[in-house]
Amino acid sequence: MKKYKKVLTITTACIVSLLFVFSSFMVEAAGDTPWMHSQVIATPGECGSTNCGPATLLVFPNGTVWSIFEVRHGSGSDFVPTDIFRVISYDNGTTWSNPSKWIDYTDYSPQTLFQAQCWWQETRLWCGFNVRGDAGASNSQSNKAYFRYSDGPDYEDDATWTELLVQNYSNVSQRRLGLESFTVSSDACVITSSGRMIVSGWALNYSYVYPAGQCSVLLYTDGTGETYNDWTAKYIIPYTPGIDQCTENGVIQLANGTIYSVARNEEGYGPECTWSEDDGITWSNPARLFDASITNAKPSITRYTTTANYMKNRIAVAYNNASSTRIHLSVAISYDEGNPLNYKYSKDLTGGSVFMYPSIGVLPNGSLILVATKNSWKEVYCFRMNLEYVSGGTDWLVEADTTLQFISIDGQANGTTVYDSTPTFNWTNVNGTMYWLQIANDLAFTELVVNLSDINEYNYPSKHEANTTRVSFTLPDVNALTTYKQYYCRVRALT
Fold first, then answer.
1. Which end of the chain offers a freer environment for a tag, N or C, measured as fewer CB atoms within 10 Å?
2. How many C-beta atoms surround the C-beta of residue 301 within 10 A?
3. What is the b/e burial string over 429-466, where b = at least 16 CB atoms within 10 angstroms of the residue's CB?
4. How many whole angstroms separate alpha carbon 221 and alpha carbon 235?
């Protein structure tokens, strides 16, 4: 059974005094201490090759996790025979199975499989992957794209899967948007609130010479998706020479229903984002995700939390925070629905080591998980971390609770003006050995003015008082709220 602790939030505002409006809610006790775990989950030798990756992941509702990845035979080139392998975790990414071949390149012609991705549609599991073109195509980037789906219940049983062709360069009538290259991307896909299924992708416009002319695209369906004609293609970010050459994108849905896409920009400006307010039919002009020019490596995006489950709308993005090479694999958080140039933290996971092609997701326990490939298609790594690790301890997951309990301050009623810059906070005693109090200038708690994580009677003998039901803590003079303005506050129990 989960254990929960009471947490209070206080909003203050006044001109010459402090007006407190506050409430309490629940927070999961686990994850107080920032943590991150990394491990190798597949090596080329285990797969009978010298190269493996890029990898993607899929999180099941019960905590099972799949990672599927390319195994390239002969070299790390994009144009060699390539299988799709799979590893499985049944315990939220803690331990993993040995790699096993899932999709065999000998079953397809040509024989280079690439950019595989899985996603959920209620109880139906989907997979998309691509088969790169052969020497007979007008360009080596020509391709076929396949979807396969399974209604389970045993998704690991290949007999439950049905496959269909959704892009075919060798048949003019089956070229999406008239393009020989129309590739299913290896990042997030989404089922919108209207039931529309949107699959991210990218394409190559052959009126330009490779590598120019790449663009961000999608496939969507309002039907079952079980036939070629169920799917319709749309541009997300068209190719603009010298400005936008976007590939390898992902799509999610924001809390307000807007569809949001993040893509790699091979013009060298780093990831770009764009929005659609009509379920993916038309899109805004793209904007740079970060204010500094960074490498044109593939990013990965996921819907992290919403106010329906964890009190805040958060988006998590994984990307290489470096100016050129694929180093400094990092995770950043958005608190304002992906507003460009406003992502917080940018936690570096790997330093100067090369890690590329991340795929990020959310585990049922609220922690983040991502997979990435090290050193140009060598080992596949899994990283797991809590929000405290990414935020440096300044943010944590607070579960939504519609039954908010009243907490007093200075013994006064809710909404009372308090004429004291060092007020006494009163919260429910949940028998924590220590409490952590934060007061910030902003709701995202990125601008802290008070950050005390050692509150107990021993550390604050003259400021701390408790009985069996209540804790009272008076803000020390050194932490006095000398500026009268709006504040945000929260407290949690540490065990």
1. N
2. 29
3. bbebebbbbbbbeeebbbeebbebeebbeeebeebbeb
4. 15
Q: Return the pLDDT at 19.
A: 47
Residue 464 and residue 377 share a domain:
no
Do 152 and 221 lie in a common domain? yes
The predicted pLDDT at position 71 comes to 95
Q: Residue 81: how many CB atoms within 10 A of its CB?
A: 16
Say if CB 491 and CB 438 are below 8 A apart.
Answer: yes
Buried-state track 3-32, b at ≥16 Cβ within 10 A, e below 16: eebbbbbbebeeeeebebebbbbbbbbebb
Question: Structural domain tally of the chain?
Answer: 2
384: Cβ–Cβ under 8 A, 6 or more apart, which residues? 36, 37, 38, 92, 93, 94, 363, 367, 368, 369
Q: Is 250 exposed, middle or buried (0-12, 13-18, 19+ CB in 10 A)?
A: buried
* Straight-line distance from the first to the last Cα atom of the chain, in angstroms, rounded to the nearest whole number: 16
Q: Alpha-carbon distance 418 to 424, whole Å?
A: 10
At 195-205, the pLDDT tens digits run 999 999 988 76
Q: What is the CA radius of gyration of the chain?
A: 25
The pair of structure tokens assigned to 372 is 């990435």
pTM listed for this prediction: 0.77
Regarding whether 163 and 49 lie in a shared domain, the answer is yes
Same domain, 370 and 222: yes
Q: Quick one: tokens of 125?
A: 């599991």
Low-confidence residues of the chain: pLDDT under 50? 1-17, 19-31, 135-138, 208-211, 401-406
What is the extent of the structural domain holding 476? 4-31+399-494
Sign of CA dihedral 425, 426, 428, 430: positive
- Looking at residue 417, its pLDDT comes to 59
DSSP letters of 112-158? BEEEEEEEEETTEEEEEEEEE--TTSSSTT-EEEEEEEE--S-TT-G
Single-letter amino acid, residue 61: P
pLDDT value, residue 269: 78
> Which residue(s) pair with 464 in the sheet?
473
| Selection from 119, 102, 337 nearest residue 221 by Cα | 119
